[in-house]
Amino acid sequence: MNKDRCLLPATDDECRKAWLTLHDTLDIVGGKWKLVLISILRGGKMKFRELAKEAGISPRILSKELKELEANGLVSRTVLDTRPISVEYELTAYSVSLNEVISTMYEWGQMHRQKITGKA
User: Fold this and answer.
1) Does position 61 have pLDDT exceeding 50, yes or no?
2) 3-state DSSP assignment of residue 11
3) What pTM does this model have?
4) What ranges make up the beta strands (E) of 9-113?
5) At what angle do helices 99-117 and 34-41 cross, to 10 degrees?
6) What is the DSSP secondary structure assignment for residue 72, as one 8-state letter?
7) Coil, strand or helix at 88
8) Which of 29, 58, 84, 97 is the most exposed place for a label (fewest CB within 10 A)?
9) Which among 104, 109, 98 is positioned nearest to 34, based on CA atoms?
10) What gap in Å lies between CA 91 and CA 80, rounded to an integer?
């Protein structure tokens, strides 16, 4: 196996494990909405409808994305005792572990946009 395909010098088995780890990461934060929702929720708790409006996402897709973020321990869901019942979402303490990843992706995106468009 070509060792240049790994991010670090590694054995074939370590390379395969590294690729699986990257795949796991992309499963959790990949797609069109997850990082957008995490970024919006960095501003604090939001009710479902507020979050849908802010993100510009359909309720069906928002529900699916929030369930996945909750299952991965990044978002918590609280059912409020209101009439009608409303649900509030917020980031968990664990979600802070993504801060460096998000910052790095943002910086790379800025650099890439400048390279492609010639402007920041």
Assistant:
1) yes
2) coil
3) 0.81
4) 46-47, 75-80, 86-91
5) 120
6) T
7) strand
8) 84
9) 98
10) 16
Distances (CA, A) of 68 to 31, 33, 58, 112, 116: 12, 11, 16, 29, 33
Query: Highest mean pLDDT range out of 18-22, 72-76, 80-84?
Result: 72-76
Instruction: Provide the token pair at 57.
Output: 């996402």
User: 78-85, long-range: CB within 8 Å, 24+ apart, which pairs?
Assistant: 80/47
Nearest to 52 by CA among 39, 62, 60: 62
Helices and strands counted in the chain (H then E): 5, 3
33 CB neighbour count, 10 Å cutoff: 19
Q: Which residue has the tokens 């802010």?
A: 54
Q: Which two tokens stand for residue 117?
A: 């468009």
Phi, psi of 85 (to 5 degrees): -60, 135
Please give the domain boundaries of the chain with CATH numbers for all domains: 8-92 (1.10.10.10)
Residue with tokens 């995106």: 109
